[in-house]
Every structure is written in C-alpha cells, then in structure tokens.
Amino acid sequence: MIPVSDxxxxxxxxFFGLNTGFLFNSPERHCVNYFGYRVGKQVKLICxxxxxxxxxxxxxxxxxxxxxxxxxxxxxxxxxxxxEREIHENFDIGYKDHPWLKPVRYAHNRADQTKTIAxxxxxxxxxxxxxxxGVGPIHAGIIEPGHFRFICNGEQILxxxxxxxxxxxxxxxxxxxxxxLLQRTxxxxxxxxxxxxxxxxxxxxxxxxxxxxxxxxDIEFARTIALELERMAVHTGDLxxxxxxxxxxxxNSVFGRLRTPIINYMQEWCxxxxxxxxxxxxxxxxxxxxxxxxxxxxxxxxxEPDFLEMNEQMFQLPSVLSRFERTGVxxxxxxxxxxxxxxxxxxxxxxxxxxxxxxxxxxPEIGHQPIIKHHGDVYSRVQIRKAEVKQSxxxxxxxxxxxxxxxxxxxxxxxxxxNSFTLSLVEGWRGEICHCAITGDKGELIMYKVKDPSxxxxxxxxxxxxxxxxxxxxxxxxxxxLSYSGHDL
Length: 489
What we know:
Elements: E1 2-3, H1 12-23, E2 29-39, E3 42-51, E4 56-65, E5 69-70, H2 73-76, H3 81-91, E6 94-95, E7 131-135, E8 147-153, E9 156-163, H4 171-177, H5 181-189, H6 196-210, H7 217-245, H8 249-270, H9 290-314, H10 318-324, H11 332-338, H12 343-346, H13 354-357, H14 363-366, H15 378-399, E10 420-427, E11 432-439, E12 445-451, H16 454-464, H17 473-480, H18 484-488
Parallel strand pairs: 5-6
Antiparallel strand pairs: 1-10, 2-3, 3-4, 7-8, 8-9, 10-11, 11-12
Helix pairs in contact: 5-6, 6-7, 7-8, 7-15, 7-17, 8-9, 9-15
C-alpha cells in the first residue's frame, strides 16, 4: 500500500515513453494492469509494470481529458491493446494509431451508447473462396456465452475473432456500491466460478493491505493449500475435457472421476465444492485441522496412482498424440507480443508465474519452480497440466508436515487508510490475477479494478487456431479453458 500522492503524475508524452520503454526488449517485464478512473472532469490513467527479475512493480500516472486523442501504447507494444480498448470504451478517449479500437465488454455505462454488442464490427474478408462460420453466443451444454467468428478456406481456419461481453455484471462497480466487507468478499467469490480461491485471496490481500492488517501463518497456510487444490481440481477436469474433444472416452471418464474427490474434499473442509466461504479477509474460519490434513493425505494417496496411470496410458496412444502434437501452436514471439500470462505463456517458453516472480502466501518458503514448455501446442498445455498437478500434490504433502497453530483472535480491522493505492497479485491456476484499489479522503473505495488472466489470454486462443482445421477448435479451446465471466466482469 502506498499513498496515491506517491505515484508519479507526469505528462502523457513522458507517461507514454516511460511505460512503453519499460517493456522494450525486456521479456522479464510485463503490464499487470493499466486502467483509468474519473477525477472530476478528467480521467486519471494508472499503469503498473511488473519486473519479474527484481520482484518490483513500477507504477506511474497521468491526467488526461476524455476528449483527448492520444498516441497509442499499443502501436509501440501490442500487449497494451485490450487495456487501451477498455479505456476507450469506458471514457471515450481516442487513440490516433491503435490498430484494433473496438469495444471490449459493452458495459451498461460505456461512454458511447450507440455501440451495441448486436452490431459488433467483425473483421471480414471479401472472397468467393472463403466462408464465415459463427458459433455462439449461446452454446450447447453449460458453457458461458461468447461469439466466435471464423473465416475459413474449406476446413482450414484463416482467422478467428472472439467477441465477449455477454456476461458483463458490473463487478467493479459493485465493489464500490456495496459497503459491507462480507458483501464485497462474496462479490470476489463470484468473479469466476472456477477461480473462487484465487480471486477471493486477491481481494483479501487488497483489504488487509488497505487496513494494515498482518495475516497470521495459519491463514496463509490455508490459502496456499486451497490455491493448489483449486489448481489440481481444474487441471484434472480440463484433462477430462480435452479427452472428450478427441473422443477418448476412457480418459474423459477417469479424469472426470478423479476431479470429484478433490472438490468433494473442499466441501468437507468448508461446505462448498467450489470453496466458497473458505477465504475471508483477516480470518481463518475453516482451519485446516490435523484431522482434515489426515483426510486430505488419504485423498491424495488414492488419487495419485490413478492419475499417473491414466496419464501414462494417454500419452502412449498414437491416436491421442496425433491430436495433441503441433495442434494449436502459438509461438514464443506471439505470446510475448500479446502479453499472455500463466500457462498460456509458459507453454511457449515465456516464464510468467507470480508464485516465483512476486511470491505471496507461503510460496517464498516453497521455492516454487515454474513448469515451462516450449512448443506452444495442445501437447505443451496438457503436459503443463499433468506436471503442475504432480507439483501441487508435492507442495501440499510438504505443507501438511507442519500444520501451524490456529490463531483464535478475532480480526480487528482499522478503517482503510484514506487516499491510498494498493495492488494484489495472485497466481491462480489459469495465471496472474491482479486486483487494484484506491481509497478516497475518508478511506472509502473510489476505484476497484479486477484483471483475470483471461483478459490477457483470449487472443492467444484466436492465434492458436490459425491454419488448423475447424474441427481442431474444440480441443484448442479446452486446452486453454479461458473464462468468459472473468473477462466480462
């Protein structure tokens, strides 16, 4: 936490040069958040650049007018493209040279109400030989809404554009409107249903920072184990989904079954298979007791041999490997250019993992080593899932050797410090989660900004399907498993 007044406020020309310069030829740096909020009739822009080599975050700001037409960060470094599109959508700030200045979410309070999701300006190519295929926004099954527009030459995909925004719920505004801590925590739990622990931990860290609250070891212990269990559960379920998309029924059945005891254990622990209610600011209301630890160890002992055996069988099948290898490739240069995070970066050799670059919780003690692959294909993404599940099991087993005593004291929160800025980074199973908050003169929240890793990574999915057959899209999509609701907010 720092005073807002400590954030350098500079002219836009210097702001532009500083932040694009940070990223020039520096793969160890990336933008963790870039957003704006209204200050009177002006808009204050804040840019946060993480340096993974020094574990520091460079924060700078600039005041602009809504009527301004600015030089685009994106024209210098493409990783800023969606951040600037969101700023444009929210405040009608123009950019002279942004290559793709389209709406991102169609928020109800967007600056230009004439732009509607029904007439989204999809890219198109005029040709007698090409055809377009539209999928969604309503999908079969229980998948969330999103529209995918393919341009194909026969079965080959030349271009995919993904339009989201159908799930927009005004999450960030609700953080400001709701005044009770429990209400805000419940909102954090609802950002993305598969990342309850990740987002609620990020919010809790924000609130604890604003209030100057020091978290006890038993709280950090429970959160760290919960994050790794969430990673295990989702990765296992995604392995099942990938098997479905290649018609490998045995893998689908076994991995689907193996996910169940993990999420059932979460229900034993806190009463919710999705971990709702487990993470609370300043509180450990469901301590991981020795009895629960013994039960968790027993669950892992039964889970592990079946998980390893199923992976061994799957990766020996030529029919499986032929669908995984060299399918849905995204190169290192592309993931670096578009600024992917988490697994969508590590699949192509780009090390993005907050657990090691900006460690939190008990990760400094764990000494986490990110799982890195280099081919950027479905096979790399599936291999990362397998390796991370094994790694998470080892982390959990090691942590269970030293269960901390429960701190029974009631949390005593001071009011949030006024005129302050704080930033929270958490490595969820999908990648880097970032929550930012700013307080006003009385300590009230005046800005809350959420960034799910999917915000960075949807474009990687669009690039991955180019020159693949359209029948490969489902397996590419599931191998990323990005969040609609986490993007739309």
